[in-house]
UniProtKB/TrEMBL annotation, chain A:
It comes from the Bacteria. The gene is fbpC. GO terms for cellular component: ATP-binding cassette (ABC) transporter complex. It comes from Frankia canadensis. This is ABC-type quaternary amine transporter. InterPro entries: AAA+_ATPase, ABC_SmlMolc_Importer, ABC_transporter-like_ATP-bd, ABC_transporter-like_CS, ABC_transpr_FbpC, Mo/tungstate-bd_C_term_dom, P-loop_NTPase, Transp-assoc_OB_typ2.
UniProtKB/TrEMBL annotation, chain B:
GO terms for cellular component: plasma membrane. One of its GO terms (biological process) is transmembrane transport. CDD domains: TM_PBP2. This is Fe(3+)-transport system permease protein SfuB. Signal peptide: none annotated. It is found in: Cell inner membrane; Cell membrane. Keywords: Cell inner membrane, Cell membrane, Membrane, Transmembrane, Transmembrane helix, Transport. The lineage of its organism: Bacteria, Bacillati, Actinomycetota, Actinomycetes, Frankiales. InterPro entries: MetI-like, MetI-like_sf. It comes from the Bacteria. PROSITE patterns: ABC_TM1. It comes from Frankia canadensis. It is a multi-pass membrane protein.
From TrEMBL, chain C:
InterPro entries: Ferric-bd (IPR026045). It comes from the Bacteria. GO terms for molecular function: metal ion binding. Residues 1-21 form the signal peptide. SUPFAM superfamilies: Periplasmic binding protein-like II (SSF53850). Belongs to the bacterial solute-binding protein 1 family. Fe cation binds at H41, E89, Y225, Y226. CDD domains: PBP2_Fbp (cd13543). This is Fe(3+)-binding periplasmic protein. Pfam families: SBP_bac_6 (PF13343). The keyword Protein transport does not apply. Transmembrane segments: none annotated. GO terms for biological process: iron ion transport.
Amino acid sequence: MTALTVQGVTKSFGTTRVLHGVDLDAPARGLTAILGPSGCGKTTLLRLIAGFADPDTGTITLGEQTVFAGGRSVPPQRRRIGYVPQEGALFPHQSVAANIAFGLSRRERRSGHRLRELLDLVGLDREIAGRNPHELSGGQQQRVALARALAPEPDLVLLDEPFSALDARRRDDTRRAVAAALRAAGATAVLVTHDQAEALSMADQVAIMRDGRLVQIDRPATVYRQPRDAGIARFLGEAVLLPADVIDGKARCALGTLVVRTPSVTGPAEVLVRPEQLRLRHDGDGPTATVREISYYGHDAAVRLTLHPDGLPITARLSGTELPEPGSEVRVTVTSDVLAYPTPDTRGSRPPGEALVRHQ
Amino acid sequence: MPVLGVLVALLVLLPLGFVASYVATSSWAEIRQLVLRPRTAELLWNTSRLIAGCVLACAVLGTATAWLVERTTVPWRGLWRVLLVAPLAIPAFVNSYGWVSLLPGASGYGGALLIVTLSYFPLVYLPVGAALRGLDPALEESAFTLGRGPLRVFWGVVLPQLRPALAGGCLLVGLHLLAEFGALQMLRFPTFTVAIYEQYQSSFNGPAANMLSAVLLAYCLLLLLAELRLRRRARYARVGSGAARPAPRVRLGALTLPAVAGLALLAALSLGVPLGSLVYWLAKGTTSHVAFGPLGVAAATSLGLGATAALVTVALALPVAWLDVRRPGRLATLIERSTYFGNALPGIVVALALVTISIRVVPALYQTVPLLTAAYAILFLPRAVVGVRAALAQAPPVLDDVARSLGLSAMAGLRRVTIPLTAPGLGVGAALVFIAVVTELTATLLLAPTGTQTLATRFWASSDGLAYGEAAPYAAVMVLLSTPATYLLTRDMRRASSG
Amino acid sequence: MRRSRRALPVLLSVTLGAALAACGGGSGADGNALTVYGAPHGELLSAMADGFTQQTGIKVNVRPGADAELANQIVQEGKASPADVIMTENSPAMGLADSRGLLARVDTATVAQVPSKFVPSSHNWVGFAARSTVLVYNTKALAPGQLPVSIMDLAQPQWRGRVGIAPSGADFQAIVSAVLALRGETATRQWLDGLKANAKAYSNNIAILKAVNSGEVAAGVSYHYYWYKDRAAGGVSSGNAELRFFGNQDPGAFLSTSGAGVLASSKKQPQAQQFLAYLTSEAGQKVLAASKAMEYPLLPSVTNSVLRPISVLDPPEVDPAKLNGPEVVTLMQKAGLL
């Protein structure tokens, strides 16, 4: 069952078109992440779904109810949505309890039963109910904001970059707590984020937005492993993109001859190699590279290399146990098959140095 | 909202338009006869040298005291913080009354400079002190580690960061001086505003008064443009997140005693003299015994007018501040800017315009409380806008969104979120207007309904007749009424400094 | 933060209550009350208004103001003026109102009560009090032999920085108008130029009296009653000061007439005429003489024994209707005194 359907939605601010015909289905009880760089239009889409603003064209349906079509719009307070904005936006003049109970009826507010239930749901200590928002940590504030949004049992919960203001450790804890609470509540959720790790780890479905269009909608593993184009590939994580020549399912490139997973592609192409696909050895086959620098993270490490003979910079991700010395020469091999994207004609002649690593 | 904002701006610009159209319809010969004459040059010179001297003195006093209290080890800092703001509770004309009634020689340029400086230096002290508290101490610490002494750190690192606050305070002093009437009249130091009132008395709403108003408005415009430029360049003193750390304090050591003596002297001059004089005249009261009846009536009238004007002005400030906060842009800036004319317009100019306009256009409003309230609103709108804008910043639009997503209608959201959040700020705005109305003199004299006497007009009538003992109770009640609002103001500024 | 939120409703209700109270109590409007635009000093006005109310039961609302201010105000207000009666301290302002046709003719019975030199030929207003021009001087600074013979002498260089005037006040302007009427424009202009160079400007006559008494200036141009009033109250501000009456029909001996008129636009003509009749009646004049105002009553039958008798003042003959306010203001503006 689909909880949210967006069809052909466009939106302009002045002369700037922000959304160019967006289509999206969000399955019930699932978490859909809308992932895109800042300024791509994802927050605008969220606000249109919430009803804080209206599309220029298109329709929006929540469950059975069409909330926007042909210029007729259901106001936000009648859409049965929950909304968790950036940094929580708790009401500063009200206690935690009053914030959570804000959307409840007067009777429910009095009973306090639902309040305790919600605090438990988002994993907060019941003792903080009496505190004021400014006495909470950022992660706690976000959990309160989620509890507040879930309190009236909305059909759909919208989360707008809810974790971006948190520091790394809290962000992870809070993400897991929020995802668990959403699942426990059986809520349908749409999360807007620019953080691919967040989208991949939390969502059941990831919708990638670029320049006001949804360019790929798939399960997290699919978008990561089979990005529809090189741009998406780069956006979803560190990617080594190499110019290649594909013939009969084999790509010849600076890393040797690799097996291509996408048999339809032939001719000039770009192959996508993820850093974790690379292995380094001191001897054996494969092209040689010089180790430039190593960033050690504990659980693994990023090794930056210069590939011979063209001097292409590439990155390999290795487990932390067997690292080469900076300055040493190594041989590079690729462990599994790769993706290839046909090179548009205009791109054929670009200098190789630019082709490669993009960091998120 | 934009329409409401434009209407408010038009109301505020009414006196300006009146003066401008008056000048536009005057013949060149008339303008030359009334404006280009030695008296104008004399007033220009008086006004300019008073503004220059007083702004400079206030800047030095305000910054020095703020630095002593916020950045040094001077003892009894809590006490000084109160005493350095307290002069704001004493209207400038009560202050000059305090001085002149004891020292009749305290008049002319020297006296005026001394007394208005004592009245207005807190306008610099407050923002500079707030800025000092908000500065990131890391900058100073870095400067110290680079081997700079305290004075060089202050001069080279602290002072440049204080510039926006300092400039803002100085501008406020300048605008207050342009509009000041009572204090300067009592000190026999004619500036434009004083001369306009004299012209009015000698030729009710005559051409000369309007021409002088035009010159005065040009002067105001100059100051406002200066403010616009400064504001554009102003930045928040501290960027980045995290709680502010207290800054390192400079050890005064042997200089402690002179510092305390200086602060004590300033407090004695700015508070001791006027309050002492007030107590002296209250106790003496030989001129007449206190007439409690008229005093009560005047106090109730002031209170009522102040409260009415405060409510109306805050209501008018709402669309202006709302546009400025929620829909920033050219129109919002234009509207907000135009309301600032009120800060610079002397009461007499506004009153003269409203008298003429009401007689010609709406005679039913002439000499009524609504017209007087309109004058107060025009004059004091900027004070309300400041408070309302701060209040609206407390309630960002995302909270409206959240409230609506939780099923609240716009009205319910207003009731449960926006109003509770903005009320304290609105209260501050209202208090600022209230305090200003209670001590307002010229517009009240011209526009009040016949028989209406406020504390300020009663005080003025008595002290103008040099019946100091008779004036004292009215002044005392004005100071009492101003005190809570002053406290609110300083609390607001103190809070603003930490945010 | 918390506390202020609870305090706010209290604050709001208090202010609201006060606002309502003010609207109820502030106006004090009474349908039958006379509205008087009155320039004379409070004690004089309230004494006479109270006497009138006692005699007739008609209440009086006074809007205080300066002479020219009030006269020009009724000019501006025209037919819409809320005023019924205008009272000024000096006659030029009455002349201005009369010249614009704003005043109703005064009842003949009232005119008949007043000596004719205090009534303009138009009979559109009447005098009800008089005040004499004087030079108030500091007895330590000036010996009687050093005093000027005429008020015109004050323009001479030896008075530089030693004389005080109140140029923005109607009192002084009335004196200038007398000089203008008696000596002509050229002499008046020269005199004003001399005063601009010599005189210290004060805001009013009380300030002049205090300045003379303290020795800030040696002498000042004023009206007689400020000194008399202060002497009657103990002489705190006049102990070192004495009065020089110029006499001799000098412009400086000018006797200024305080006048009252009924506005033609008034809807309470009978009551307003009644008020004028009272002001100039023996009863009204006695109230004036007995008040602390120390101004001269106009009826020969009523005198204030404290004052130098009006009969020995020897003032110049000036038709009160001929005193020209606007022209004086222009002359003073040209001289830089305004």
